[in-house]
Amino acid sequence: EVRTTLNTITLASEVERLTFTGTGNFIARGNASDNVITGGAGNDTLFGGAGADQLNGGEGFDTVSYGDADKGVTLNTKTGIHTGIAAGDVYSSIEAILGSDFSDAFVGDAGINRFDGGFGMDMVSFADEAVGVTLDLGAPVLTGAAAGDIYTSIEVFQGTTQADSFTGSAAAAENFVGGAGADLLTGVGRGDGAWYLTSTGSVQINLLEGTAAGGDAQGDVLINIDNLMGSAFNDMLTGNAYSNKLEGGAGNDLIYGGEGDDFIYGGTATDTGAFGPLTISGVQADTLYGGNGNDTMRSADDDAGSILYGESGNDNITVSAGIAYGGDGNDTLTGTGYGYELQGGAGVDTLNLRGSGDALGGEGGDAYIVFSKTMVGIQDTGTSGIDTVTLKNIQSVSDVRIVQNDLGAYIFNAADLQSGNLDSGVFLKDWYKGGNTIETFYTNNGQSFTIPVVGQAMTESFAV
Prior knowledge:
The protein is mainly β. The longest helix is centred in the C-terminal third of the chain and has 6 residues, at about 415-420.
């Protein structure tokens, strides 16, 4: 055993017991063994480290910290069963618990719990409670198992299977997982969210009308909620007039952004913390509508036929294997997988081609940027504006080779053509049938060239 008057100490690797005999506040760091650490009369902070530790704060306001953890922890003061480096730890005379720099989960007992999540997407869960809870994080008014608790840096609150009431705070944006039961979810300020990732059935939620039905949403009332995360089933989510973040989760979802500058995702983009990544079986084919405003939209990573409509505004849309319609406005469309289709519509659009797919710019001066090392297709029949193609996969004009194929034209890298690799390049659809409205082509080094409609030799095709 080490008995010390030092106010800060790290326990040597061969020692298991540490006792503070000095005055003032004490900071103790344990080692990887099963330590017994005892504080003094001050406000102490005890780091048990790895191992099953016994942490006794003594007098004063004492905190157990997991700020030295290399991953998130689960802390359950009700059952005493913890995970991560907290596994096996036992607390005595501890007034507060500080989580790790990662995503932690806290479950409190019937006493007064003071949980500080620290960094990460941290959650307090009441899922195992038999009676519904009431949380007003701005007052705070807390009833049920939450009575008297104090929360700091907690981003997610999970309710019971009963009727819960969650009210957010003006200080931060919170996310509520009401669970089963007819829950009242009230946002304060802007940016609070309702998550239905644990729902056992599909949900239909309309933030504009304030309606919720199906699955865990049945009977819920949502007030001033701006963000939604759907279930693992086929959901319908509709935004309101503000800037919404709408995430379908798993399943084939139908999502309407409505007014405002929205972030719309077929899958999930938000860190779901202790819930971990959503389990998705099979492929997804979502339908997303941006509505008015400058929206950011993205299909699920395992997208197989999703359709994303930007509609009005200057939208930023990314698809894996689906179809992106920019609509009106100056849009940025990106294809990342295989078999996608980008349709710019009206406006000055930027179409980024990665993976293998097709792009159709429409009217307006469009910019096609080819990053792909596989074959992509481009067709532009618009007559307004100056259209360009930038070939990021071809360094200079001297590397360009053009091959006519019936009514279309292929652009190859000379090295690929020489080696017989015909699966990498750009196919200009209907180039010799009126689809030749792209004015200028650029290579990666900024050199420009044009492609004639008829007959000239390759060396005569370039205007550098």
